[in-house]
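Objective 1.3, modelling of assemblies. Example input:
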Amino acid sequence: GQQLNQSPQSMFIQEGEDVSMNCTSSSIFNTWLWYKQEPGEGPVLLIALYKAGELTSNGRLTAQFGITRKDSFLNISASIPSDVGIYFCAGPGYNTDKLIFGTGTRLQVFP
Amino acid sequence: GAVVSQHPSRVICKSGTSVKIECRSLDFQATTMFWYRQFPKKSLMLMATSNEGSKATYEQGVEKDKFLINHASLTLSTLTVTSAHPEDSSFYICSAIGQEIIYGYTFGSGTRLTVV
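Predicted structure (tokens):
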């Protein structure tokens, strides 16, 4: 079935640094969603991408929908301690409403 | 807009008892609701999809008699973990989509179930 692989698996960075994480798939996705999950909470949508090549920003976050439709990246600029959490990419499977989730990138920010 | 409320946030129950988890869409009509299970440090695993007024569709390997899902109205879906065992302990999360929200999957805040 369709799978989404995220890298890196975890990141430990200093406050103020920029962060970049990736999501790749062996199959095409028509929509890419980026979520953040904090401990004990449900995922919260950060950015939604609907077209190949699309580049979208939300504050310090920027995400791009890869031109091949098989990848996406999320960048966080000037990280702050509250950026800590797990970041998931997700997308609806082929011909379905079901969301497939990536493996997640755990971000830790040190002051 | 697009708020999904999940209740309870935490529940501890004894082995053999049943637990009901509610998922409500507060400001939109949820045509479809999804139930996920998440193990520590793992991604979300889809358990089932429920559409209002019809039977839920379960993912492969999910026991439908163990995890009863009811989607009786356009704003409420429930997941009942029947005859719970310690291995059912997990974080359960629901999400909902409605016709007026394009891929705006909104998630509940999750329920931490501990079976002792």
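DSSP finds no helices and eleven strands in chain B.
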